[in-house]
Amino acid sequence: MNLDFDARKRAFVDGFCVLKKNDRIFHINDGSGAFVTLVMGSEGALLVDTSWGIKNLRSLVEKLTDTPFKVVNTHGHPDHCYGNFQFDEVFVPERDIEVYKTIQDYSSSRDELFESEEERLAALPGPFPPLKTVKAGDIFDLGDLHVRAIPLYGHTRGSLGYLIEEEKVLLCGDAISLSQWLFLKESLSLKEVKKTYEETLKEDFEKILGSHSKVWWTKELLKSLIQNINNVLEGKVSLKDASLERIMDYDTASFFCDRDPGCWILVPENCVKKS
Predict the structure, then answer these.
(1) Torsion sign over Cα 263, 269, 270, 273
(2) Model confidence at 169, in pLDDT bands (50, 70, 90)?
């Protein structure tokens, strides 16, 4: 399928915005705020995440690539995997299986994404395919591209990133961001998240692409997140330095690190010293 990209490297197809990051990587949004990413090699393609499933993602992917393709998830949160029902086979992180079991708790959030009841009824989810698992170290061979699953445990206990080795690009899902959620019951401790980030720095990549971002990041963001975590672990900040907010029934404390690039971490309020 030949796409007509505008000056901002965007094409609009079947209700989706397809953002061309390069000739091999398309970052795709269905209007819900969560991106999925299609990686296209000479002999196969890989779709990373499926968003909410509010539009026909499978049909779009079949138009964009004429090779066989596989589907993987970065983690078990519904805005990244609810669209799994559109596919016959999806590989999910093996350490996030328990997170997937809670997915129905979030179904009402999906309903809010539709502009009319008619649209909602037309896009009711079907049954999910049987869960197949992917683990850190697994490699997807796309011919002239190889995508390796790497551990990005933290945001959820089993989050995975997908490293496109020849492109030196890391697709990180929600595991790395400018505003990092680390307060959920399925999130790991700050010490464990710090270890994840330090190990990730050793990997051979130059660019990071997140599931809620249009732009590339670099490894400098990981260094900023580590410094932000260190500030909390070492008691250099307290609740008086935090922005306090209740999110999804969690009492959270948000801290900003102004190391370039600046970033926020959101942590459980009860893990921070009071003064």
Answers:
(1) positive
(2) very high
